[in-house]
Amino acid sequence: MIGFGRTDRSTLGRWWWTVDKFTLVAFVLLIGIGITLTLAAGPATAHRKGLDHFFFVQRQMIFLAPALAALVGLSILSVAQVRRLAIIGFALAFLATLATLFMGVDVNGATRWLRLGGLSVQPSEFIKPTFVVVTAWLIAAGRREPGGPPGVGISAVLCLLIVGVLALQPDIGMSLVVACVWAAQYFVAGMPMLLVGVLAAAGAGALYGAYHLFEHVRERFDRFLDPSAENYQVHRALEAFEAGGLTGRGPGQGEVKYLLPDGHTDFVFAVAAEEFGALACVVGIALFALIVVRGLMRMRREDDLFVVLCCTGFLAMFGLQAAVNIGVNLNLLPTKGMTLPFISYGGSSLVALSIGAGFLLALMRRQAPGGGG
């Protein structure tokens, strides 16, 4: 198999026989599906914007090699190496995200991007995978010994700080993901049930506040709650699902990609439904489900709290983003600018998610060295 025998003690040999191959293949397939759908939806968006026909395809391909390198390269690391690299990466990503508030590129009223040469990079995307590891380390360190450092409290302050910075961009969707990831980790670590109710109430209050503070949030909720309201992209997406049927119109034969401003990003799932059909969409959902289920099965056999909390955070991140994006496409949730992991166009998102996937694969490896400390 791939040239490695079971007695091969090289780094690659040990990696091949310990990595979760089902999860690895699922991630690679999702990346492949993403490139395919960028080829399908990208040219239509480029034509509508007056850009070169393969503008978005070429941009996405630039990030493909770094994404695959991160996916495989990081999955070789030990648990201790994952922790150390994530701490450094988190510090750099947080500083870069702060910089967007002062020198970020303004796109539709949001300053989430930094211009690097001819490319735009969204630093906050890189906060997500590194934040998962940092908070897992803090919580696990605090729980390891009685009287240890207040890991939960420090991680909570860190979470609030990040959410505050993201809200200033503003990026309410990213703030929601970060908060939910932290809550999932704390819940698995043993959150008191009374605090579960308190945090749920606080989350509802935060959404209520966002509704009144941010006009775009209010408009999206109002359109979702009022069936008679004009919701252009969602209506076109639902028409795409109907037109595609079970098997789709065929590659390149879709029409909705010419009508959806975000057909290559937030509504790429609708493009897939029209061209490849509902059955193909079910396959995509099954790949996300496979990743989550395999991760949960692996956690059942793990006794290192740090690893358990890391896996919890990554699975929550992948699962939540996928569920929200698909829910929006099906008009089950208010519209939100949240991409479909690995599939929607976006170089920063692709590389950052691949970093998270590489970390997850490293932590899921059988007989991987411990190192929650």
What's the quaternary structure here?
A: single chain
- Helix amount: over 70%
| Uncertain residue segments | 368-373
Number of helices: 13
Percent strand equals under 5%
Q: How large, in whole angstroms, is the Cα Rg?
A: 21 Å
How does the overall form come out from the CA principal axes?
globular
Distance between the termini: 35 Å
Number of strands: 3
Largest sheet: 3 strands, antiparallel
Q: Could you say which structural class the secondary elements and strand pairing correspond to?
A: mainly alpha
Strand order of the largest sheet: 1-2-3
Order of helices and strands: HHHHEEEHHHHHHHHH
Q: Mean pLDDT, rounded to whole units?
A: 89
Tell me what the structure shows:
This protein has 373 residues and is mainly alpha-helical. 70% of the residues lie in helices and 3% in strands. It is built from 13 helices and 3 strands; from the N terminus they run ααααβββααααααααα. The chain has a 3-stranded antiparallel β-sheet with strand order 1-2-3, covered by helices on one side. It starts with 10 loop residues before the first helix and ends in a 9-residue tail after the last helix.
Task: List the topology elements.
Blueprint: H1 11-18, H2 21-49, H3 55-75, H4 79-103, E1 105-107, E2 110-116, E3 119-121, H5 124-144, H6 151-168, H7 172-190, H8 193-213, H9 215-225, H10 232-244, H11 268-300, H12 305-329, H13 347-364
Antiparallel strand pairs: 1-2, 2-3
Helix pairs in contact: 2-3, 2-11, 2-13, 3-13, 4-5, 4-6, 5-6, 5-7, 5-12, 5-13, 6-7, 7-12, 8-9, 10-11, 11-12, 12-13
